[in-house]
Design goal:
With 151 residues, this protein is mostly beta strands. The protein contains 3 helices and 10 strands; from the N terminus they run βββββαβββββαα. The protein has one domain: OB fold (Dihydrolipoamide Acetyltransferase, E2P) (Beta Barrel), CATH 2.40.50.180. The strands form 2 sheets. It has a 5-stranded mixed β-sheet with strand order 8-1-2-10-9. It has a 5-stranded mixed β-sheet with strand order 3-6-7-5-4.
Length: 151
């Protein structure tokens, strides 16, 4: 069984992870240009290697408490694929924690009850040191419909 590699990060008290293969870069400080009339969860745009990249507030996207620290948080830039196109996004994180490996047998399904954010974004969870790390489905977090709205 082949292990997968994940980048883990923190939002408030919750731990999340994304597949390392989708992550392009992590920025600690980056100037975000605000975009008028953008959806609430889109903080603005940043320059990434000459491309204009939308910045998503993961706090708002996942219905977690939002505050001004999103504007000063860490940005994780990643790539998604839909309809044969590549899309770049930056998502906010309070803190990048670690890179971990997990085998498919370690991934536990998440029940839909009691989750304050949309569970369709969650692939499953990994239990590490008595904590759960929620695995994000980046393709679902940033769906094709949302990509078209941002474009």
């Amino acid at each position: 069984m082949e292990k997968e590699t994940f980048l883990t990060f923190q939002l408030g008290q919750d731990l999340f992870a994304v597949e390392v293969s989708n992550v392009l870069e992590v920025f600690e400080k980056q100037t975000i240009t605000l975009v008028p009339r953008a959806p609430e969860h889109i903080l603005g745009i940043v320059n990434f290697r000459g491309n204009i990249v939308p910045v998503i507030s993961t706090h708002q996207k996942f219905n977690l408490p939002f505050n001004d620290r999103d504007l000063n948080s860490i940005l994780i830039v990643f790539e998604t694929h839909s309809a044969g196109n590549h899309h770049f996004f930056a998502a906010t994180a309070d803190k990048v924690k670690d890179v971990i490996e997990a085998s498919p047998g370690e991934i536990i399904p998440i029940p839909e009850i009691g989750v304050s954010y949309d569970s369709k974004f969650i692939r499953g969870a990994i239990r590490r040191n008595n904590n759960f790390i929620l695995l994000l489905e980046t393709e679902r977090v940033f769906s094709q419909v949302e990509t078209e709205v941002i474009s």
